[in-house]
Design goal:
The protein is 54% helix and 3% strand. It is mainly α and 277 residues long. Strands 2-1-3 form a 3-stranded antiparallel sheet, with no helix packed on it. The protein is globular, with a radius of gyration of 19 Å. The protein binds iron/sulfur cluster (2 copies).
């Protein structure tokens, strides 16, 4: 349904503006000018990945990593619960940095048309995607050892929403610049190759309760779903998409302009599938 696509765009826009407002307001509050309603919220307080990096300290020492708030743990639990059901909805619908990359990607699509997001052959690219697990392991290890938010100095998401504060390391600006540049050629490059939180959420795709299913009996193998997938997944040859890179964006299930055969692609649990047999 095209409606789904439109709803996603609006959800992404509203959440991007909300996070931007929280960030700006937090800076204003520190200089005595912000709105009280938001006064306690910082970017760290609304980041569910903070809940992941503090787990070791929370369970082992009963403390939080410096700058991490209990709200991050609550958000982490909410995001994990939705991921058990529907996979990384957070990546496809909520993360403002994913949205930002999609917006830059629109320029790339205009520049390169059909070539956009097709520069690296999938047979090599699929292995490069595991790099984000290397980043995840490094972030978790270093945060556990140092008790500091080690990734902050390299985090393009943090840089984007805090670039005016003077808190950003040069490495943060370099990473953000690289992501912007790569987004002109590749859709969501940070999500694909480097995001440690995307790496965690991607694992839920392996056992999510409601996966993406393709009805092989009515599929006409037109490959439109492959072409539209921002993560370049081979949807048209999968019976069930369990790839760790699916971001549950629903783009491939859009029957208005993508899959020409209604109900060929759908998010369905195995129980539902049994019922409609
Ligand atoms: S398989 Fe479909 S839902 Fe998953 S990332 Fe690709 S387009 Fe989005
Ligand atoms: S777009 Fe629909 S019909 Fe075409 S290959 Fe994908 S699932 Fe099959």
């Amino acid at each position: 349904m095209k409606k789904k696509k439109t709803i996603r765009k609006w959800v992404q826009l509203v959440l991007f503006l909300l996070i931007a407002a929280i960030s700006v307001n937090h800076t204003l509050v520190e200089s005595g000018k912000g709105v009280t309603f938001f006064s306690t919220a910082s970017l760290h307080a609304v980041c569910p990945f903070g809940g992941v990096v503090t787990i070791y300290h929370l369970l082992g020492l009963g403390t939080f990593v410096k700058k991490i708030h209990p709200s991050s743990v609550v958000l982490m639990i909410v995001v994990f619960s939705s991921a058990i059901l529907l996979g990384p909805l957070f990546c496809g619908w909520i993360c403002p940095f994913g949205t930002f990359q999609e917006w830059i990607g629109k320029i790339g699509k205009k520049l390169f048309k059909k070539k956009y997001n097709r520069f690296i052959p999938y047979k090599y690219d699929r292995y490069l995607r595991f790099l984000r697990y290397v980043v995840l392991a490094w972030v978790l290890y270093m945060t556990a050892v140092t008790g500091k938010l080690i990734f902050q100095d390299y985090d393009p998401y943090f840089t984007l929403f805090q670039f005016w504060t003077g808190e950003i390391a040069i490495s943060g600006f370099i990473t953000l610049g690289l992501v912007i540049l790569l987004s002109l050629f590749v859709e969501r490059p940070f999500c694909k190759y480097a995001c440690p939180y995307g790496a965690v959420l991607g694992i839920f795709n392996l056992f999510r309760i409601i996966p993406l299913r393709r009805n092989e009996t009515i599929c006409i193998n037109c490959k439109a779903c492959d072409r539209v997938c921002p993560m370049n997944l081979p949807v048209s040859t999968s019976r069930i998409v369990r790839d760790h890179q699916c971001i549950s964006c629903y783009e491939c299930t859009d029957t208005d302009g993508v899959c020409p055969v209604e109900n060929t692609l759908a998010f369905q649990s195995s129980r539902y599938k049994e019922a409609v047999k």
